[in-house]
Write a structure and sequence with these properties.
The complex is a heterodimer. Chain A is of the alpha+beta class. Chain A has helices at about 10-15, 30-45, 45-60, 85, 95-105, 110-115, 125-130, 150-155, 160-180, 185-200, 215-225, 335-340, 360-365, and strands spanning about 210, 245-255, 255-265, 270-280, 290-295, 300-305, 310-315, 320-325. An eight-stranded antiparallel sheet of chain A has the order 1-2-3-4-8-7-6-5, sandwiched between helices. In chain A, helix 2 (about 30-45) crosses helix 3 (about 45-60) and helix 5 (about 95-105) crosses helix 6. Chain A is elongated and about 90 Å long. In chain B, helix 1 (about 1-20) crosses helix 2 and helix 1 (about 1-20) packs parallel to helix 4. The chains are: A alpha+beta, B mainly alpha. At the A-B interface, helix 1, helix 3, helix 4, helix 5 and helix 6 of A face helix 1, helix 2, helix 3, helix 4 and helix 5 of B.
């Protein structure tokens, strides 16, 4: 049966003109092709339908993303996001969901997410054959001669550079054999508490004093041996935030360097109490022990040491220890990051530790 | 390690490709460097991670591979540019990142049209998956990601077919919006969106 030429295009016909999801596309038989031809004839003749088809075409066939210029960073773009972490599921799911929702409509972050996603696709036949032809890596046996550790890309730079690297590699091997490789979870807790206590007693001066996240982040960028940044866009004005940053310093530990960040925590009675965040690469310490609160992508370890509440966790290559005198009924100290991330207020959230009477509670709650 | 050799190799190869270099010997050397990094400290770090985050161990390995590769090229680049540049994190440099180009009129109009569609989605979608469905829609149409790529993202929790179903359902509603319900289906937007079966979840 022939389609009336004067009939305006309808939903199914518009779809039939431009099916866009290949796996959902209908298979057209001969008669369907005839109808499609008749729809096109109507669209050619009808200005109204032509505009609607063009509009729909605009949506479902946008400019190829590969040639679309990436946009500049917008005011809502999250800072310090490695989109590959998001793709790999290394972020908590609720946060990953927020990030994906942003990237979906952002021409700055979207292309970065897409690029990260494309690291994860199945290998193409060409990639398969490339991988199959690769030389198998040597088994890195601890204690083996350091010479085998030299990658060929270094040796290409010449014998002098190679010899220098051998000496460096040898020195590092000897050094690492003399020093314990890293702290245990409990040792890291003790280190963080000791730093916190020393600072509270005025025996650990800060290298930089500022209540500005941006200023501290600049300092981290210049001084920290590892990449570190505090979330810096709090939706709250400085005076409304439940904490006030004091400053930071570097603290040596096990021949490595930790970053110590001190801040004051505001209690509901408008008093303040000291809190600190100690950060170290997870090659030095991985959070463990204590009472665990596991989320899909991160596990928090709660413990009490020398009267302080300590929360440790490892995420994105770093291990954190948050030390405070806060009671177990609240987690206000976490807001130093969470308020800037726009997450829920943890001021009323209890810690998964036994709630024992705390002499400071009347002041802290 | 044999089981993860291929994923690591693939990440190294693709990351190196982003920097415009897929020389076989370079990829082999980078893989070797990654193994070394993973073996540091008698693999204790790797073991601890595997114990604490068994679900994320492959992600950890891939992340290590990508970072090591990026670091190599950044180091090479900084040496080529004078050698004294401070170390930059993997967040600072992304080969695909471009510069803003002033929008043409067509681009501005397209932006307005996209906003209209987005408003329609925001108001028309209901239920617990409304944000997820909106995200899927734009990842597909605005960012050009495939249904397969979208289905692998965390929090999507749909198969490739399920993602396709969401897109088809929302496309139906958008077509209705564009056509102005001239086809006689005088339903409201919410009904439009509910008219198509929900996606298949797996």
């Amino acid at each position: 049966m022939s389609r009336p030429l004067s009939k305006h295009i309808d939903n199914a016909e518009l779809d039939a003109l431009m099916p866009t999801v290949p796996e959902m596309a209908p298979t057209l038989d001969g008669s369907s092709l005839d109808v499609t031809r008749e729809i096109r004839q109507h669209v050619t003749a009808c200005q109204e339908c032509r505009e609607k088809v063009q509009q729909y075409l605009f949506l479902v066939s946008p400019q190829p993303t590969e040639v679309r210029p990436a946009a500049a960073r917008g005011p809502d773009c999250p800072e310090d996001i490695d989109w590959y972490d998001v793709v790999l599921g290394l972020w908590p799911e609720f946060k990953a969901t927020q990030l994906l929702a942003h990237a979906a409509v952002c021409d700055h972050c979207g292309p970065r997410l897409r690029a990260a996603t494309r690291l994860e696709g199945d290998p193409t036949p060409w990639e398969e054959s490339f991988l199959a032809e690769l030389r198998a890596p040597s088994n890195p046996v601890p204690g083996a001669n350091a010479f085998w550790r030299l990658p060929r890309l270094q040796s290409l730079k010449g014998l002098t550079a190679a010899l220098a690297l051998v000496l460096i590699a040898g020195a590092l091997t000897v050094r690492s054999s003399l020093l314990p490789p890293h702290l245990s979870g409990q040792e890291f807790v003790e280190f963080a508490v000791a730093s916190h206590r020393q600072h509270a007693q005025g025996r650990l001066a800060l290298d930089v004093r500022s209540d500005s996240q941006q200023a501290l982040n600049e300092w981290f960028k210049a001084k920290s041996p590892f990449s570190l940044a505090l979330p810096a866009r709090s939706p709250l004005a400085a005076e409304q935030r439940p904490y006030r940053l004091e400053g930071a310093r570097l603290v040596p530990v096990k021949a490595k360097t930790a970053v110590f960040i001190a801040y004051q925590l505001q209690t509901s009675t408008l008093q303040t109490t000291a809190a600190s965040l100690t950060v170290i690469p997870d090659s030095v310490a991985v959070a463990s022990g204590g009472t665990e609160a596991g989320f899909k992508k991160v596990t928090f370890h709660y413990s009490t040491a020398e009267g302080y509440k300590v929360v440790t966790w490892s995420l994105h290559g770093l291990t954190y220890a948050l030390v405070s005198s806060e009671g177990n009924k609240t987690q206000r100290s976490c807001m130093v990051c969470h308020s800037a991330l726009g997450d829920r207020d943890l001021s009323g959230t209890a810690t998964p530790l036994p709630i024992t009477p705390n002499p400071l509670d009347p002041f802290l709650q | 390690m044999f089981r993860v050799g291929k994923p690591i190799g693939l990440v190294v190869m693709r990351t190196a490709s982003m920097w415009g270099n897929t020389s076989r010997s370079l990829v082999e050397d980078l893989i070797q460097a990654i193994y070394l990094k993973l073996w540091e400290g008698g693999r204790s770090l790797l073991r601890e991670f595997a114990v604490h985050r068994p679900d994320a161990i492959l992600g950890y390995l891939k992340k290590t591979a990508a970072n090591t590769t990026h670091d190599y090229f950044k180091h090479l680049h900084s040496q080529a540019s004078g050698g004294n540049n401070a170390h930059v994190s993997t967040l600072d440099v992304e080969p695909e990142a471009g510069q803003e180009v002033p929008g043409s009129q067509e681009r501005v109009l397209f932006g307005i049209f996209l906003n209209e569609i987005d408003e329609h989605l925001k108001h028309g979608l209901t239920g617990p998956d409304r944000e997820r469905d909106r995200t899927i829609f734009w990842l597909y149409f605005r960012q050009g990601m495939s249904t397969k790529e979208i289905s692998t993202l965390p929090g999507i929790n749909l198969s490739m077919k399920g993602v396709g179903s969401v897109i088809e359902r929302l496309k139906y509603a958008i077509r209705e919006q564009i056509l102005g319900k001239q086809s006689g289906a005088e339903q409201d937007t919410e009904q439009d969106l509910k008219a198509i079966p929900a996606p298949i979840s797996y």
